[in-house]
Amino acid sequence: MSQPDLTELRDEFDRWLTSMLPADYYDNYSVYRWDTGLRREYQRASFEAGWIQPTWSREQGGRSLTPAAALEIRLQAALRSAPKLPNIAGPNVAAPAIRSFGTPEQVARLLTPCLDGSEWWALGMSEPEAGSDFAGLRTRAVRTGDVFTVNGHKIWTTQAHESRWAVLYVRTDAEAPKHKGISCLVLDMHAPGVTTEPVRMASVSDETFCEVFLDDVEIPASALLGPENGGWQVAMSALGHERQMIWVMNWVETQRGLEALRSNRKGACDDLHSAVGALLADSEALRANGYRALHNESSGRPSPEGDVLKLFGSLALQRTWETVAAALGPAAVADPDLEFERHDGLAATIYGGTSEIQRNIIGERLLGLPKG
């Protein structure tokens, strides 16, 4: 299939996005960014227009674009502060896993409601004892015939209390090496034995963390996503999609922070020229490495940049908003929007894999350092 000209494609997306947004969207962005109704409508309309997963077919919410063309659309959406999807884990993590590993029946039943936002998804990965050590998970699933009985405890499970389904990672072979004994199950969040409790948050957020308790939860074997004991591959594939989105989001957020610095012409900025210059360089390095990673992956080559992007981008974002606060001086304390951005910047070094885990990955896999 021939690909559209990138300029024409961006223009088409711009026109569509403008038609979707309220006339006063940018004047009242601090209010609209929390408007769940608008965000739900944006996700549904994005699916119907083919923007939700641009590289996929029309039937699956896309336009059969190349990865490079799809990246341009994602960057344009982020640069224009398009409404944030209300359930990011669904289209960006669960949907790719369903599409790649699901049975025909699972794809037919689950994919469209996941993409259009009519059914939300949670990610059952992190656990109290394992933290970011995904391979160390302890939630156990014992198979008897065609049923798994699951017992365990998940934490930091975003929006679990509002989700219809979860991709649940469980240990199904206690004797196998850690990463080889994991399976992925589609969990019905309404099933008997599932208890969800929101975690009290220290800051304002629409993405509430939850604890999920699983007590003798029975899940049919037909709910396996991918092969039994093949959950590691499902997780790595799905998280690869998530981390591609994270660097784009981090880059655009650094741009917003840098724009806030440019608009501040007070003397407080005079002592921050070096810091701002470093952020400008970091921002361009992040974007360049994002493109390089995409090119390598599209060419089937190893992409060490992909492992570096998450760590580098989250730290750059955190430094950006701290520099904005320093530029504003005492006024930063009374700015609720800035307070949110600073808290969100702190979270960036945790979600999608903590910075500590990312450093271990870089040290061991890229630099060949021994395990500590």
Q: Could you explain how this protein is built, in words?
A:
- This protein is an alpha+beta fold and 372 residues long.
- It has three domains: 6-86, no CATH class; 121-229, Butyryl-CoA Dehydrogenase, subunit A, domain 2 (Beta Barrel); 233-366, Butyryl-CoA Dehydrogenase, subunit A, domain 3 (Up-down Bundle).
- It contains eleven helices and seven strands.
- The chain has helices spanning 6-20, 29-32, 36-49, 67-79, 89-101, 104-116, 231-263, 273-298, 304-328, 336-348, 355-366; strands spanning 121-124, 140-144, 147-154, 165-171, 182-188, 194-198, 210-220.
- Strands 2-3-7-6 form a four-stranded antiparallel beta sheet, with no helix packed on it. A three-stranded mixed beta sheet has the order 1-4-5.
- A hairpin with a 2-residue loop joins strand 2 and strand 3 (147-154).
- It is globular and about 65 Å long.
- The model has no long low-confidence stretch (mean pLDDT 88).
What's the structural blueprint in terms of helices and strands?
Layout (H helix, E strand, L loop, with lengths): L5 H15 L8 H4 L3 H14 L17 H13 L9 H13 L2 H13 L4 E4 L15 E5 L2 E8 L10 E7 L10 E7 L5 E5 L11 E11 L10 H33 L9 H26 L5 H25 L7 H13 L6 H12 L6
Parallel strand pairs: 1-4
Antiparallel strand pairs: 2-3, 3-7, 4-5, 6-7
CATH superfamily of the largest domain: Butyryl-CoA Dehydrogenase, subunit A, domain 3
> How many separate structural domains?
3
Side by side, the strands of the main sheet go: 2-3-7-6
CATH architecture of the largest domain: Up-down Bundle
* Basic shape: globular
Q: What is the CATH first-level class name of the largest domain? A: Mainly Alpha
Count every helix, treating DSSP H or I runs of 4 or more residues as helices. Answer: 11
The average pLDDT score comes to: 88
Biggest beta sheet attributes: 4 strands, antiparallel
* Percent helix: 40-55%
Radius of gyration: 21 Å
Which oligomeric state applies? Answer: single chain
| Helix and strand element order | HHHHHHEEEEEEEHHHHH
Number of extended strands: 7
Proportion of residues in extended strands: 5-15%
Low-confidence stretches: none
Q: Strand pairing plus helix content: what structural class?
A: alpha+beta
* Beginning-to-end CA distance, first to last residue: 49 Å
Q: Report the CATH topology name of the largest domain.
A: Butyryl-CoA Dehydrogenase, subunit A, domain 3
